[in-house]
Amino acid sequence: MGQITRFLIVGMMNTVVDLLLLNIMTLISAVKDGLGYSAQKACSAGIAIIFSYILNKHWSFKSSQPGSNYIEFSKFISISLISMAIQVTVATVMVSYIRPLFDMYGPFLTNAQLWVNIGGISGSLFSAISNFLGYKYIVFPRNARSTLEKTENATEPVR
Question: What's this model's pTM, rounded to 2 decimal places?
Answer without folding.
Answer: 0.72
